[in-house]
């Protein structure tokens, strides 16, 4: 593992996390987060190669996962308070209760329980996004080397 690549991975993860958090609060653009989820691993490999660093497939996977995990963590840390502050969380809960077939169960959930569930989901998604970025980083490196 090449530890010289860690600053690049952290920089890409931090920038992508902030961009994802900002995009998440803009209703008509928030759908772009589905695409941005895959980019930190690819961007890490791209910028590391442009800096003249040697990137092995294992490095692409490891540091792609670090970039993706950091992206998810920062996006969650910034996005959750913004959602709570702007009332988007309450709006999402109201919409879920109206559309839910089991309205009694949803009505029993308080706001704090919903926040705890969102935090747990964010942690789970952080690992999923990290794994996806490990794959996208390694795939990008493989296709770039051909």
Could you explain the architecture of this structure?
This protein has 146 residues and is mainly α. It has one domain (3-85, 126-145). It is built from seven helices and no strands. The two termini are 22 Å apart. The model has no long low-confidence stretch (mean pLDDT 75).
* Number of strand segments: 0
Low-confidence stretches: none
The averaged pLDDT comes out at 75
Q: Structural class of the secondary elements?
A: mainly alpha
Compute the number of helices.
7
Tell me the overall shape: elongated
Radius of gyration: 18 Å
- Note the beta-strand portion: under 5%
Number of domains: 1
Percent of residues in helical segments? Answer: over 70%
Calculate the terminal CA-CA distance, rounded to whole Å: 22 Å
| Largest β-sheet summary | none
What order do the helices and strands follow?
HHHHHHH
Features:
mainly alpha, single chain, 146 residues
Quickly describe the structure:
The chain is mostly helical and 146 residues long.
Topology (SSEs and partners):
Layout: H1 6-24, H2 33-36, H3 39-50, H4 57-86, H5 88-99, H6 103-108, H7 111-145
Helix pairs in contact: 1-3, 1-4, 3-4, 3-7, 4-7
């Amino acid at each position: 593992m090449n530890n010289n690549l860690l600053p690049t991975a952290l920089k890409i993860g931090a920038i992508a996390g902030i961009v994802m958090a900002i995009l998440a609060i803009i209703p008509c653009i928030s759908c772009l987060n589905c695409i941005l989820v895959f980019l930190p691993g690819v961007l890490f490999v791209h910028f590391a190669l442009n800096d003249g660093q040697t990137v092995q497939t294992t490095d692409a996977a490891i540091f792609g996962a670090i970039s993706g995990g950091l992206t998810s963590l920062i996006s969650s840390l910034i996005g959750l308070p913004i959602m709570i502050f702007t009332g988007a969380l309450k709006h999402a809960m109201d919409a879920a209760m109206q559309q839910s077939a089991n309205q009694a169960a949803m009505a029993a959930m308080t706001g704090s329980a919903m926040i705890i569930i969102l935090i747990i989901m964010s942690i789970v998604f952080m690992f999923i996004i990290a794994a996806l970025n490990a794959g996208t980083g390694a795939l990008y490196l493989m296709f770039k080397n051909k």
